[in-house]
Specification:
The chain is of the alpha+beta class and about 500 residues long. The protein is built from 20 helices and 23 strands. The strands form six sheets. Strands 9, 10, 11, 12, 13, 14, 15, 20 and 22 form a nine-stranded antiparallel beta sheet that branches. It has a five-stranded parallel beta sheet with strand order 3-2-1-4-5. It is globular, with a radius of gyration of 25 Å. The structure holds ligand MV4. Ligand MV4 binds next to strand 8, strand 13 and strand 14.
Length: about 500
């Protein structure tokens, strides 16, 4: 494998380019019109235009992207996450064009794309699922049928789209009275979002944690699970903070949950990187939820506690190499890692997108800090795509250590020209329930509701501004005390001065 086309943009395209460079593989970027000068384009060895800004006309164009791969002489395609990453037709189109799709087979993508088929695979593997329907409820199922099925499951329950996932098209139903209306709403939403009106029912767990297990599968029958990620902190079904390991997972639960995840993957002959999502109840019981057949946004926290480069392994697996990782070490976290997804959004204004030019950018560095960014200073955050500008990940030898480093890194982070969710994370990272790891999937909504719209204060920004003003004023007001010694005022003399030398 000599050249890989990355069918994506932003930080994940940059992440994949970095893995390719580490491995001596050439890279091809693709870009829409507004992305022609984007960071991923400038970092790749070559770049091909794929159309206008709307995703449907560029990053979702299977034909154009496969064409770019062929013309550029790429041997393989990495889809990143989002866009075409879980599109079985794209994976098949790559295969048909003799391009290696760096991900699972089209069959595995299609199978797990049906959330009912995924549930059935889990049941076959002997893995617990939330009580619910094991058949899709199509248009032919009447309200009376559904009410009868619901009676057997119990309330509250959830209506979920068979073709959905990630919370899209979900409805909670508290009582039989609400069922017909919710059913109609869920079906029409599913039909317009996924082109498939089929739904299914699940008993709703009230305050579960959202825990997931990363795994890798090679083409020689080996499937290896990794220590879990805790992803309970979500807003509108978007994860905001992730960490590994989870403080809610005991060694016994870890053992059972990772074995269950591997069993589900084995039941569908899964290859490449994938993630099994579970709900974890307060009593320690866990239930299979769904499988994501892609590399996930939050993969770095797993990399930080296991030392494994997941993207590099995706590439090796797709070249036919065997997984030679030590299974036990993947289940034994070294320290603790946490990730904050930095968005170009205004947390004081309902998390409204805040697109525009990044006029100033200081990124955090130092021990235990990793910043997976997708934009540079001077770069634009377009309105057309997900406004995540960076993922900030910190590592420490304990959870408090990782969190202290996250607070340090967030304070160093300085983004000018657009609003970001950094103040929101500073607030979350000062919450005593969060610090004690006392949370579930309702945490963010509850805390935001309790806050009642009170502004999040961007303390870091103000301090920096004040410090700059103070420094300038001290120069103006006390010229004698701060003046350079005589003869050092001209730039040429300054450059050669002994004082400058001592600063080097
Ligand atoms: C659930 C659930 C409770 N009970 N299913 C949301 C994302 C998608 N992957 C599945 N999700 C959930 N499914 C049952 N049977 C809770 C979630 C859930 C959630 C629900 C409401 C608000 C925030 C949430 C965060 C994570 C998971």
């Amino acid at each position: 494998m000599r050249k890989i086309l990355i069918a994506n943009r932003g930080e994940i395209a940059v992440r994949v380019i970095r893995a390719c460079r580490d491995m001596g593989i050439a890279t091809v970027a693709v870009y829409s019109e507004c992305d022609r000068a984007a960071l991923h384009v400038r970092m790749a060895d070559e770049a091909w235009p794929i159309g206008p800004n709307p995703p449907r006309e560029s990053y979702l164009r299977i034909d154009t992207i496969v064409d770019a791969a062929r013309k550029s002489g790429a041997d393989a395609v990495h889809p990143g996450y989002g866009f075409l990453a879980e599109n079985a037709d794209f994976a098949a189109a790559c295969r048909d064009a003799h391009l290696i799709f760096i991900g699972p087979t089209p069959e595995a993508i299609a199978l797990m794309g049906s959330k009912i088929a995924a549930r059935q695979a889990a049941i076959r593997a002997g893995v617990p699922v939330v009580p619910g329907t094991d058949q899709a409820l199509g248009d032919a199922t009447t309200d009376a049928d559904v009410l009868a099925i619901a009676e057997g499951i119990g309330y509250p329950l959830m209506i979920k789209a068979v073709a959905g996932g990630g919370g899209k098209g979900m409805r909670t139903v508290a009582s039989p009275d609400d069922l017909p209306g919710a059913l109609r709403g869920a079906r029409s939403e599913a039909a317009s979002a996924f082109g498939d009106a089929a739904v299914y029912l699940e008993r709703r767990l009230t305050q579960p944690r959202h825990i997931e297990v990363q795994l890798l599968g090679d083409h020689h029958g080996t499937i290896l699970p990794f220590v879990e990620r805790e992803c309970s902190l979500q807003r509108r079904h978007q994860k905001v903070v992730e960490e590994s390991p989870s403080l809610a997972v005991t060694p016994e639960t870890r053992h059972a949950m990772t074995a269950a995840a591997a069993a589900v993957a084995r039941a569908v002959n899964y290859t490449n990187a994938g993630t099994i999502e579970f709900l974890l109840d307060a009593d320690g019981t866990f239930y299979f939820l769904e499988m994501n057949t892609r590399l996930q946004v939050e993969h770095p926290v797993t990399e930080m506690v296991t030392g494994v480069d997941l993207v590099a392994w995706q590439i090796r697996i797709s070249r036919g190499e065997k997984l030679t990782l030590d299974p036990a070490s993947l289940l034994t976290p070294r320290g603790h890692a946490v990730e904050c997804r930095i968005y170009a959004e205004d947390p004081d204004n309902g998390f409204m997108p805040s697109p525009g030019r990044i006029t100033g950018l200081r990124r955090p560095h130092g021990p235990g800090v990793r910043d997976d960014g997708g934009v540079d200073e001077g770069g634009e955050v377009p309105i057309y795509y997900d406004p995540m500008i960076s993922k900030l990940i910190t590592w420490g030898d304990s959870r408090p250590h990782a969190l202290a480093r996250m607070r340090r890194a967030l304070a160093e982070y300085n983004v000018r020209g657009i609003k970001t969710t950094i103040p929101f994370f500073q607030w979350v990272l000062s919450d005593e329930d969060f610090l004690a790891a006392r949370f579930d999937t309702s945490f963010i909504d509850r805390k935001l509701a309790a806050r009642n719209g009170e502004a999040l204060h961007a303390a870091g920004d103000d301090h920096q501004e004040l410090a700059a003003i103070a420094a300038a004023l001290s120069q103006v007001l006390r010229p004698a005390a701060n003046a350079a010694p005589a003869g050092m005022a001209t730039p040429s003399r300054w450059k050669d001065s002994g004082r400058m030398g001592s600063l080097r």
